[in-house]
Amino acid sequence: MAPEVARLGHVSLETPNLEESLSFFHDAVGLEIVESVDDTVFLRAVDEHDHHSLSLTEADAARIDHIGWQTAEPEDVRRFAEKFEQQGFDLTWIEEDEEPGQGEAIRFEIPNGHRFELYGTMEKPEPPAERRSKLKNRVYDPSGNNPVAPHRIDHVQIWDPDGLECAEWIRDELGFQVQEYYDEADGSRWGTFLSACEAKIDIAVVQSEHEDDLPALHHVAYAVDSPNDLFEAHNAMNEHGVPVDGIGQHGISRGEFMYARDPISGHRVEFNTGSYLTLDPHWEPIAWEAGDISDGDDHQWIGGIDSLERVHY
Amino acid sequence: MAPEVARLGHVSLETPNLEESLSFFHDAVGLEIVESVDDTVFLRAVDEHDHHSLSLTEADAARIDHIGWQTAEPEDVRRFAEKFEQQGFDLTWIEEDEEPGQGEAIRFEIPNGHRFELYGTMEKPEPPAERRSKLKNRVYDPSGNNPVAPHRIDHVQIWDPDGLECAEWIRDELGFQVQEYYDEADGSRWGTFLSACEAKIDIAVVQSEHEDDLPALHHVAYAVDSPNDLFEAHNAMNEHGVPVDGIGQHGISRGEFMYARDPISGHRVEFNTGSYLTLDPHWEPIAWEAGDISDGDDHQWIGGIDSLERVHY
Amino acid sequence: MAPEVARLGHVSLETPNLEESLSFFHDAVGLEIVESVDDTVFLRAVDEHDHHSLSLTEADAARIDHIGWQTAEPEDVRRFAEKFEQQGFDLTWIEEDEEPGQGEAIRFEIPNGHRFELYGTMEKPEPPAERRSKLKNRVYDPSGNNPVAPHRIDHVQIWDPDGLECAEWIRDELGFQVQEYYDEADGSRWGTFLSACEAKIDIAVVQSEHEDDLPALHHVAYAVDSPNDLFEAHNAMNEHGVPVDGIGQHGISRGEFMYARDPISGHRVEFNTGSYLTLDPHWEPIAWEAGDISDGDDHQWIGGIDSLERVHY
Amino acid sequence: MAPEVARLGHVSLETPNLEESLSFFHDAVGLEIVESVDDTVFLRAVDEHDHHSLSLTEADAARIDHIGWQTAEPEDVRRFAEKFEQQGFDLTWIEEDEEPGQGEAIRFEIPNGHRFELYGTMEKPEPPAERRSKLKNRVYDPSGNNPVAPHRIDHVQIWDPDGLECAEWIRDELGFQVQEYYDEADGSRWGTFLSACEAKIDIAVVQSEHEDDLPALHHVAYAVDSPNDLFEAHNAMNEHGVPVDGIGQHGISRGEFMYARDPISGHRVEFNTGSYLTLDPHWEPIAWEAGDISDGDDHQWIGGIDSLERVHY
User: Fold this and answer.
1) Which CATH architecture describes the domain A5-124?
2) Chains linked to A by 3 or more Cβ pairs within 8 Å
């Protein structure tokens, strides 16, 4: 039986100024700081049991280091490793706890240049006692910190000069399910929206404008409860002086969104809500065509997105 | 003691196709039809006791006929009439029930060409029994009809080639209170936001782009409960194929908005929520200057408005 | 490899008066009618692609007929059948389309007397054109019908005189994952909350008060978007004159709820929102003990439930 | 012309332990501390410009000191004073700034034993720079502190052994408008809901159970945005270990509520949303009779209230 990816775990980002990036990701967005090791800070959302869903490392420039995926079983890491070594990939082994809290892992560039990490286990540290929720099935007390703090990592969106090929590799080699896709009038694939967990979209692979564009991360999305929260979060971003790139609703996924960017690094966070669950074992991908969503040329159902900036590896 | 205006009552609109306009105002927006007389249909929102807050008349073109204001006391109509006749205004007397449900009224053009109506009383017809709410302080059963139906008329926005003069006339002659105003970098007044009831903004007077622009209505706003409802209403407008002009939050008034337009007439409705009450008897107008609200050039705090189309008298 | 259950599919209910029950499930709750065959009406929620998530059959009394579960693969039906026949269960085969829209299925009583159905496939009929959403990933236009219509079936709650044994059978024989459980001070298991899909709770198994209580259904839950919607739905139930049993938030699952009951049959619907997703491949069940949730004796975190009525098979 | 009350200003409360009461009113509820003078702390909500809407004084027991009402004009204080002196009331003059931030005022017991204060002006101190909102029409940055912080004081509810007489005195002598009232089956008045500002309910006067009950304060209400916020606030109260007395919706006023109490003093705060505005200059009081609201015996439309505890003067 093939090894499996269970879910999106985390993104590892680099920033030219760790302190300023923390004032975005911690102070403005409301992620909790779990641990600091050397020049790296590990953060998670208030509803997350696992050690981190985002890491920030100070470096000479803003870059994305890797996207971390948790395998279904711990031994799937070695089984994926065997398979990809046979295919000639150059794997880097990450020892247990080399990335704090994380079990043994592999990192490698997928054919289209994105750097993925596959790991099997992650520690679940208790929050500090004064931040612990009184509810056993909640991690942090949601009333104790940031009014707009999102719950959990939801998905990532990457851009690729050959979006279709990239999406097909992820589907075929990692076993993801295609939830939706969008084809332009010329038949080219604009975007593919895939699921590792099969319950919701975990990654969006979008076609770059130019053939020689570098592979890039457009955003990491964190989940909030309702459109009310998107307005509250947008207000908070404005109050923090953080640049925002739109509020509205995607047609694809039906997800309602608000985008904000770390001013120093350009890393973008989507506050996200309202999408559907795919519990259907026989899900047929939603096939969009040009013209199906008519609100402007950025494929939105409500509102729009002002900026296409993205960050490279 | 000077006669007083108590509140915004209604807007009277003309449309080239009554049936199509009803499919916007009734079917899509969710206003209730109270009465039809000849070529005019009278509508109100689900929480309104009074006979109508909007009328639609079939005519050769889309126009605004008048904006109706209810006086504090019925006798204020005659007192306003005396005052404005002395000032040389050309008043038209509207007999009781000539506009259905309405007591004696006057209509006239204010100096800047907008047509106002002042009336003192309005009937409060019961809704049909099967639509009557079980709660005595609610009019229509909110679960019986349109999921996005707003509660009550909130305010109007008018455009004027001399916005400052127009706003000052409304303040000085009708006794409105200035809640907020916005001055451009060159010192010109972009907009003045006034209250008849002193609890909230009832009318926004905005400067036209060009000196020879005609006086116009930009929109009539109806109140909903929360930003959730704005997204729901936007979805409904998209499903109805109705054009929309943006979702977001104004800086001025802090009102959260969604704009939609009647396709046939161009009349625009704002779904509106989230503004504050001014209960302070010593309210000092909020004085905005250029640069105070930085999100683009349309003075929004969140999102933006795509279209400046408006309808003339 | 063992056959698997993929998700909760539907509940089949009996009512002494089909028409009156429809005025609850269709008119008040907002489920859509898909098909009527003889004395049975098949309904689904506005976001559901599959043929039905609830059926209502006129009978001499209110009863629950069966709870339908969809297997991961169509062939899992036969594999489950082989297994349970070997174990001596008395299986009833349901031919394709005998239950409209449904593929081949088996029905049987589990050891604790609950009647389960396992089926592999279900048709996905298009809604009537005038009710079809303009969004390809949405089924019905949400603005076209009932303001409080929930999205999709979420879970069922059953009561059993030996709740622990019943829950363990479901876990061990159907392969469900335990998400949470609650033990009373005397060590007895009050409730077990299990997942078929592993992303969320699909069934709650709760201990009956008395040893000789019959196996029963407490409620079927349908998902809405936010606590706002719970208040709207509660208002709608009051306006429809439908009995309600509480609004609040469970501690277990953190789900926010509003309960309403079909007046004629007593079948109860939970409007449900706010629970979390379990995407963690190494989920450890949340283990509650007496005293962990302090709000009264009905284990609620917010509010309470007034009535423990339930319906038997 | 008669002197007028413009609005509810503040409540002055006494507590046996100031520090513990602050951990309720500031830490849990989210009111901002404006100033501390001797044993008194002055607080306001995040949207309030005026110096305080609540004060807490350490004393030997929990008591209510007075309810403060702002007059329409500063000179109305002296005009009310003349009138009430003529009527034989025993007035206490409060010098300007004797109650910090407040202009000259009078305090006196109304016939039914409630202690009212009438003041004309109140300072509007700027918040600390780091807490100032970037929006000129907002006071505090709402993202900078407590996630559940309400916006502004909304109303008070008092209990009186002769509720009808008390309400009529407030209506006749202070010029309040009756918005709604509720009569029991025996014709006795259970409650009267009055407005000083005429836009909404400012005070509820409710009949005590027993003739010899002392005049009391049941709660002070602060406004939030939506039912979502009520659930969030309830969660926050639970996390803080603060006692709560119910979540739901009143039939009278249609206000949605959540009640919480300061554990040390018993002073109760209502988080409140969803009521309507009365902009109608000819408002006719809503007249409820026994049986109009059927949800239990506490006159609620949704949910209920667990505790009738109240605090005396």
Assistant:
1) Roll (3.10)
2) B, C, D
Pairs of residues, one from chain A and one from chain C, whose beta carbons lie less than 8 Å apart:
86
Give the pLDDT score at C294. Answer: 65
Regions of chain C with pLDDT less than 70: 294-298
Interface residues on A facing C, Cβ-Cβ cutoff 8 A: 1, 6-7, 47, 49-50, 70-73, 121, 135-138, 151-152, 180, 197, 199-200, 225-226, 228, 251-254, 274, 276-277, 279-282, 286-288, 292-293, 301
Q: Do strands A54-58 and C153-160 pair parallel, antiparallel, or not at all (unpaired)?
A: unpaired
Range D5-125: architecture per CATH = Roll (3.10)
Parse chain A into domains and list their residue ranges.
Answer: 5-124, 153-312
Pick from A277, A284, A294 the residue to mutate for testing the C interface (most C CBs within 10 Å): A277
CA distance C302 to C296: 9
Q: List, for residues D289-299, the tens digit of each pLDDT value.
A: 988 886 555 68
* ipTM, 2 dp: 0.95
Asked if the Cβ–Cβ distance from B246 to A301 is below 8 Å, we say no
Contact residues of B toward A, CB < 8 A: 226-228, 230-231, 234-235, 238, 244, 246-249, 256, 274, 295, 301-303
Contact present, C34 and C44 (Cβ < 8 Å): yes
Which of A134, A225, A240 has its CB closest to that of D239? A134
Residue whose entry in the numeric block shows the structure tokens 């704009």: B259
Partner residues linked to C217 by β-bridges: C158, C311
Q: What is the chain B residue with the closest CA to A237?
A: B302
Task: Give, for all 313 residues of chain D, the pLDDT tens digit.
Answer: 799 999 999 999 999 999 999 999 999 999 999 999 999 999 999 999 999 999 999 999 999 999 999 999 999 999 999 999 999 999 999 999 999 999 999 999 999 899 999 999 999 999 999 999 999 999 999 987 788 999 999 999 999 999 999 999 999 999 999 999 999 999 999 999 999 999 999 999 999 988 888 999 999 999 999 999 999 999 999 999 999 999 999 999 999 999 999 999 999 999 999 999 999 999 999 999 988 886 555 688 999 888 878 899 9
CATH 3.10.180.10 fits D153-312, yes or no: yes
Q: State the pTM of this model.
A: 0.97
Which among C137, C282, C292 has the least Cβ separation from residue A254? C137
Phi and psi based region of residue D246 (left: phi greater than 0; alpha: psi -120 to 50; beta: remaining):
left
Q: Where are the alpha helices (H) located in B120-192, listed in sequence order? A: 163-174
Q: How far, in Å, CA of A5 to CA of A9, rounded?
A: 10
Listed in sequence order, the residues at least 6 apart from C129 whose beta carbon sits closer than 8 Å to its beta carbon are none
A99–chain B nearest CA distance, Å: 38
* CATH architecture of the region C5-127: Roll (3.10)
Sign of the dihedral defined by the CA atoms of residues C17, C18, C20, C21, in that order: positive
